[in-house]
Structures
1.
Amino acid sequence: MHNSLTDLCFSPIQVTGTKSLPKSMNETNYSRVTEFVLLGLSSSRELQPFLFLIFSLLYLAILLGNFLIILTVTSDSRLHTPMYFLLANLSFIDVCVASFATPKMIADFLVECKTISFDACLAQIFFVHLFTGSEMVLLVSMAYDRYVAICKPLHYMTIMSRRVCVVLVLISWFVGFIHTTSQLAFTVNLPFCGPNKVDSFFCDLPLVTKLACIDTYIVSLLIVADSGFLSLSSFLLLVVSYTVILVTVRTRSSASMAKARSTLTAHITVVSLFFGPCIFIYVWPFSSYSIDKVLAVFYTIFTPILNPVIYTLRNKEVKSAMSKLKSRYLKPGQVSVVIRNVLFLETK
């Protein structure tokens, strides 16, 4: 029995001329790919139901964990501080990062032909770079917040005012938008006239550009340079910021800096988890596709699911606020009362 699903998909090609596009872009007549075939994580039929179950549970955990942090921060007045305001925004972006491709990946586990339209493919490229670019800059903003809190504590609330926090969030989205627009500019006008199989579970830009009918070596270098510049510059800013903070923490008394160390551990862990895969993919762009798949799953699935765990595991304030939230909405017997009322209404 043939276990591969890849040979079952035949994507239509829209003929817009009498000739196929040659290596030169001087010709205007060419055949145009109207959709791409996503090869997914595995071509094995037997693994599809198992992967569907696993990633459905993981995606549900991402939604519950991150929305729980957003709800906790917004509902508890003690958490209405710059650090938690930025944390809630990070959770929102994590939901976005996990949602741009994961629902389609989960749905594709149930079908044989994993196709995506050309426009939907461009949309995935747009959103992945928008969300990941915004998250990079937001992580830098969170590092700046910790720098001010630890190195300039007396001026913290003055410097990190509500207005400044909103501006930092808006800047992160603006930089993400500029980044993704520049990435799309390299791709949107590329001619696609033949190969249409993307060896991933979403339209990963470096893989899509390789399918163009022209030599994309220069375009690929520009894409890597663009993403690499944003990744490395953000990472270097974070390294400098946390180095200064750690030196400051080390020179002060352990009693006053105990909470700061705990917070810093969470921040540095999240930064390492997020930037590790991104830097590996874009600074080492010639790695094998199988490694790229693993890393793509890591930053689209596991980083968004680990962030809520990391930030709440050693944070007493968040855990206390979550306990209050639980006692407010899930009082003893309240759930059973709601269930009884629903059943009573249904039997009427």
2.
Amino acid sequence: MERVTELASERSVVIFSKSSCCMCHTIKTLLSDFGVNPEVHELDEINGGRDIEQALLRLGCNPSVPAVFIGGEFVGGANEVMSLHLNRSLIPMLRRAGALWV
């Protein structure tokens, strides 16, 4: 869990992902289209990815990816991010975290 916390605080937006996950791709594309440059950790491509995935499950992210952190805080997975976007809360949250300048 310590490693997840450490990695989640690297940038204003951090995404734990898997390279073959279509919902991960959707969330990365959505944030990129807003102009956000998140730190992305592809769990199927890094050492210790399975341990990080288990920690994300313990954190309550089910499925384990995508797991999105904004401002170092766990936001949730694809459903939570899309809900924030649809109720117009995502962009203000990204601005407060310093991920968007405009």
